[in-house]
Structure formats: structure tokens, C-alpha cells
User: What shape does this take?
Amino acid sequence: MMKDAGQSVILLDDEAMRRALTRVAHEILERNGGSEGLLLLGVMTRGVPLARRISSLIKQFEDAEVPMAELDVTPYRDDRGVQGVNNRLFDTARLADPERPPLSLIQPPPDVEGKRIVLVDDVLYTGRTVRAAIDAIMDIGRPTGIQLAVLVDRGHRELPIRADYVGKNVPTSHTERIQVHLVETDGTDEVLLVRAALPKGK
Assistant: This one.
């Protein structure tokens, strides 16, 4: 669905988002032959409530609890400096010793050995967040596999990364932005395509 709202277009409203996440949850179960051995990791910030919703949907379908954890990938990003790091979670010892491997920022650290991990995020863009998430996971263990579920794939990948589960594919230009609003973080459920303002006189 698309609704024009001036400089922004509503791509998904609350009902469309619910349907998209329901479909993603079904696809996860189908691909993995059920919920056994699954672990959902929500990438902070909005990937966390999305992972909780998918976990809840799987419980409705399978009557089985799928564990989930939160993942802060900030120190693993290759395009952000230390100033952007959450100091409470960052391994400060690594600042004094650059050769020291970074600690995983999964809080609390789950057991990833032999698990089928589904990373959950709101928007897939360049792929750098996903690469950072994979680095964080591999720091603490060796899962059987890592899959990726996103609410929106907007294209423009800079790395060879593809989502396994997509709520909505949205072709975009570099001047457009995707804004995901969730009840848990923003008080409403919607996905907006925000267009750059046209110069005056155009």
C-alpha cells in the first residue's frame, strides 16, 4: 500500500506491517522446518521489537518459545568512530590495546553454538550493519547458520549481502530515506518513504 503524505509516502500502515511480519514468521518456520534450534537476534534499536513480535507470532503458530536477544553492533561498524560507541557496552580494554578482540555486545550473551540464528533489523540498505552483526556473533561462537530478516529492503547494497526474509522491497534513490516507526519506540506503526524537498521554484 502507498499513501501520499506530502514529502513522505506511507509504505506500510499498522495492518500492512502486521501482515508482513506474519508472512515473515511463517517463512522462517517453513525454511527451518519448525522452531527447533532457532535464535532470534534483534539489531538495536528497532530490530529488537521486531524480533519480539516475530517470536510472539511463532509462538502463536507453533506453541513454542523461540529465544531472542538484543544486539548492539556499534563498535563493529567500519564507518563509525569510537565517539559514536555506547561506552557502557564497549570493551574499554580494547581502547588501550587495539590488538585485543572486541567483546560481543549481545546482552546477555546467548549460546549461539549450533543454533540457527535469524538476525532481525528494520531496514536493509548498504549491508554494513549486517556485516557488523555477523562479526559480533562470530566473536562469541559458531552457529549452524545465520539468516537475515528485515522489514524493508531499500536496495543500494555496498556488500554482497541479501536478506532471506523481507517484509517489503522498496526501490529507492540515494536522496530518499526510509523511516520505520514502531509502537514500542515511536508510539505508532508505520513505514514512510521520505523524499528530499524540491528546491524553491521547482
Summary: The two ends are 28 Å apart (CA to CA). The chain is about 25% helix and 25% strand. Residues 14-32 form the longest helix (19 residues). Residues 81-104 have pLDDT under 50 and may be disordered.
